[in-house]
Amino acid sequence: MSDFAEHLPLSNRPRADESAVSGGWARETAAALTELARVLDAHPSLAASPSGDGRRDVADAVRTLLTRLPRRPHERLLAILGAIDTPSPALAAVDSGRLAELLVLEAARLSSARRGPGIRALGEAVVLLVDVARRNGLVETTDPQTLGAVALDLAVRQQPALRPTLQRYALVAASGGWRIGSGAARPCDDRAILLFLAGRGPLPDEVPAPPERESPGIDG
User: Where is this region: Disordered (predicted)?
Assistant: First the structure.
């Protein structure tokens, strides 16, 4: 799958002071949880709506997401292995109207954590956020590079049925500056690409490619 990485230039960001950056994806996950909390706080009825995975409503998906954000090293390993999956009785009993509050508290914990969750946990948060927002005609503000990182992880762990598509096309994020796949360029909505890779949407429609930036002229 190395060809996917070649087309996702996440390492090309401008260099900056990263002395305060923690390990893992703490900052990005905290941002996704905060945005999800904002959406649920503004639209409480969404908690009872389908989450998009065909199995749970949004409230249950949020409870599972919070369960999979471990605090201790051995819990991180269990989460990766899928052994931590069922919300505790206390979390299961939390009223859906308070889930936004819990998301904010968890985001605050992650913001000060020395080591954050892995890319898979970030992906669960981002996919849930994007799916809930898109299904209900809402706007979320996920960073394009975060979308690209999650898309790459989903592509690497893709289901075999997706491989022919990613060999035929390079799904180019129309507004995000990244692409997934090794075939002919197919500009698509970046969030539609993400949901397709997560198994929550069809192959995205092709959209007009963004105009190329003109190189500045040099006066002679």
Answer: 1-22
How far apart CA 119 and CA 68 sit, in angstroms, is 12
- Residue 123 sits at φ, ψ, to 5 deg, of -60, -40
Diameter over CA atoms, the chain: 73
Q: H/E/C letters for each residue in 65-99?
A: HHHCCCCCHHHHHHHHCCCCCCCCHHHHCCCHHHH
Q: Tens digits of per-residue pLDDT, 39-85?
A: 999 999 999 999 888 888 999 999 989 988 865 544 544 444 454 55
Q: What is the pLDDT of residues 145-195, one digit of tens each?
A: 999 999 999 999 877 888 999 999 999 999 878 999 999 999 999 999 999
SS3 for the chain, per residue? CHHHHHCCCHHHCCCCCCCCCCECCHHHHHHHHHHHHHHHHHCHHHHHCECCCCCCEHHHHHHHHHHCCCCCHHHHHHHHCCCCCCCCHHHHCCCHHHHHHHHHHHHHHHHCCCECCCHHHHHHHHHHHHHHHHHCCCCCCCCHHHHHHHHHHHHHCCCHHHHHHHHHEEEEECCCCCEEECCEEEEECHHHHHHHHCCCCCCCCCCCCCCCCCCCCCCC
Structure tokens at 194: 């993400």
